[in-house]
Amino acid sequence: MTSVNVNDINMYYEIHGDGFPLVMITGISENIDWWMPDVIKAFSQNFKTVIFDNRGAGRTDKPEVNYSIKMMADDTAGLMDALNIERAHVFGLSMGGMIAQELILNYPEKVEKLVLGCSNCGGSKSLLPSEDIIKLMRSMMKLPPKERLQELMSLFYTEDFIKNNPEFIKSFIQRIIIAPITADAYQRQLTAVLGHNSYRRLKKIQAPTLIIHGKKDVLSPVENAEILAEKILGAKLLLLNNAAHHFDQPDTDKVISSILEFLKAPVEKVIDKVV
Questions:
Q1: Residue 111 β-bridge partners
Q2: 20 to 30 Å CA-CA from 101: which of 17, 205, 229, 236?
Q3: In-domain check, residue 269
Q4: What is the gyration radius of the CA atoms in the chain, in angstroms?
Q5: Model confidence over 2-36: pLDDT tens digits?
Q6: 240-264 as b/e, with b when 16 or more CB fall inside 10 Å?
Q7: How high is the pLDDT of residue 269?
Q8: Which CATH number characterizes residue 194's domain?
Q9: CA proximity to 141, closest of 132, 151, 155, 131
Q10: pTM of the predicted model, to two decimals?
């Protein structure tokens, strides 16, 4: 295991490939086991790809303190410093997208390009899941890990995808059950998510930004992507017709190629928006 001391925790991380750095940030309850091998392989062939477990998740420490998205952004910045990474592309998913927002807002010098997937700005301007989905999320943490993950699949993928890809779902669960999050740590991450609000500050983001979202996302309704795209000057928006919260399926090749095309393109200067 490869860990480094960052702030008040030991953070677990892995580095794949060489080249300009790409820092990838996972969502709530997730750790590096959740990244699809095909995605890591494709990115590591083009970039020095850094993946890690957020505080509370996987193999990283789980301190009994209140978490915030800002705190986890500070962790990410600290990890970059520990790895001697001055500047990187940053790709955040769901809660990881919130962390990525805080990272670029507080450490703009560290971010070359920004990719936000299935995320939102938080606060009153963001759209919440339905009451039924919220109740399901709360009840799932009372289940044993395997049962909880099986229930979670219905929130991450469409019903058709689950029905037509049973072996994929089985393999995915087998991989992510290795180091599941504890109920206490999940609650601390959830509290951080609920406290996130970047809406009024999004106009400060100057880095080229790509926003990706599945139109069938029930955890973060697609309107959240449109809000981000509207508030971040010059942001590109990619909506996937057949995808849910884990938008890498079923259009894996399209997602990978779109992100690589965006990251490899020359950086265009973003002009300040007149408010």
A1: 88
A2: 17
A3: no
A4: 17
A5: 999 999 999 999 999 999 999 999 999 999 999 99
A6: beebbbbbbbbbeeebbebbeebbe
A7: 54
A8: 3.40.50.1820
A9: 151
A10: 0.95
